């Protein structure tokens, strides 16, 4: 929704998502812009099936997308998991995973001059994504 998806392959190369995340992003209730983008998704995004079942410790507290994302990251021993939901981040860290959220991705992109943080902040503020003043300042300072 903030027109920054282009930074993902530059920063992370190949991105793997589990089926539940794909379903969430292509469901009729997902934003139209997101649905349309995923209908013709680039080759650097791959939908990867889980090899095992999602653990009850995840399924009891998170929705299917976050649960499957954590499970897939565990199975693949992923370098990094992109996740924003606080409960999901906490459980991912408890499961030994390194996590990064939207603001972390944008800060990294700003450090590499891939985005203008002021434009990203304005775009975020037009969405329903909550961003604290501390995170806004962090993002602003990341390009300096």
Outline the structure in words.
This protein has 144 residues and is mainly alpha-helical. It folds into two domains: 7-100, 3-Layer(aba) Sandwich (Rossmann fold), CATH 3.40.50; 103-141, no CATH class. The protein is built from nine helices and four strands. Helix 2 (19-26) packs antiparallel against helix 5 and helix 7 (102-111) packs parallel to helix 9 (133-141). The two termini are 25 Å apart.
Question: Average pLDDT value?
Answer: 93
Provide the domain count.
2
CATH class label of the largest domain = Alpha Beta
Strand order of the largest sheet: 1-2
Count of β-strands: 4
CATH architecture of the largest domain: 3-Layer(aba) Sandwich
Question: How would the global form be characterised?
Answer: globular
Largest sheet: 2 strands, parallel
CATH fold label of the largest domain: Rossmann fold
Instruction: Write down the Rg.
Output: 15 Å
> How much helicity do the residues have?
40-55%
Number of helices: 9
- Are there runs of 5+ residues with pLDDT below 50, and where? none
| Helix-strand topology string | HEHHEHHEHEHHH
Give the terminus-to-terminus CA distance: 25 Å
Measured by DSSP, the beta-strand proportion falls in 5-15%
Keywords summarizing the entry:
144 residues; mainly alpha; two-stranded parallel ribbon
Put the structure in a nutshell.
It is built from 9 helices and 4 strands, in the order H-E-H-H-E-H-H-E-H-E-H-H-H. The chain is mainly α and 144 residues long. It has 2 domains: 94 residues, Rossmann fold (3-Layer(aba) Sandwich); 39 residues, no CATH class.
